[in-house]
């Protein structure tokens, strides 16, 4: 299985390191900031218990719920969109029209899910930027022949979500973790603290996070640690992160090199460092 969506902050490039640092056994699995789902989709055989996925983004959760319940209906709509896009002589205009359709469709159904996937795969680098009115304003990515989706992959994801009876929620991340208990594994990948070099901003959120929002994720990590959960926490190598965790013996902070590719600024597309913070021995 592979992610259905291209997602800002996706962990595909860090997957090898993440797998090296996982606990030997994973019973129940919780991912409160699910995003593209690359971590879970690579660990499917390692998890023996229940799986809980959550995201505050209603569109993203609508996509996964439709993949689980209506995969063939979703695929049919995606095929129509792809066929029309490839035949279109003015692909920018076609993209803009479908983006408008998405913003005007207020019902979270298979049609909206298909439009969301289409916009995600044909905009610039999958960045789903929202304005203050909660409308997606991401620009066309100049893709002439995008893949958009694979039938086999959507069906594999659908089968996985059904056979494993995955719990899918659209809640505040802290509320989604209420059932996390001692011995459960939690992978936390919240919006990144702006780092000290590129100052990347989380423009894909309707409301940008404040210092208090970032601090709350740190507090939740500490609460889960006290509860006895095994937590891996991904974030930027920022001064805020270093101040909070570098001297706390309960946590191990590992610096991981990664090449960023989402910026239009070529100077930002160089090797940077992120961190993986663990509250267990790996």
How do the helices and strands line up, and which of them pair or pack?
Blueprint: H1 15-21, E1 29-31, H2 38-42, E2 51-54, H3 58-69, H4 71-87, H5 91-104, H6 110-122, H7 151-163, E3 167-169, H8 173-176, E4 185-188, H9 211-227, E5 230-236, H10 239-245, E6 252-259, E7 271-278
Parallel strand pairs: 1-2, 1-4, 2-3, 4-5
Antiparallel strand pairs: 5-7, 6-7
Helix pairs in contact: 3-6, 3-7, 4-6, 5-6
Q: Helical stretch count?
A: 10
Number of strands: 7
Query: Structural class, please?
Result: alpha/beta
The largest beta-sheet arranges its strands as: 3-2-1-4-5-7-6
What's the CATH class of the largest domain, please? Alpha Beta
Q: Give the CATH superfamily of the largest domain.
A: Vaccinia Virus protein VP39
Classify the beta-strand content into a percent band.
Answer: 5-15%
Low-confidence blocks of residues: 200-204
The ordered H/E elements are: HEHEHHHHHEHEHEHEE
Question: What are the main properties of this structure?
Answer:
282 residues, Adenine-specific Methyltransferase, domain 2, 2 domains, 10 helices, 39% helix, 13% strand
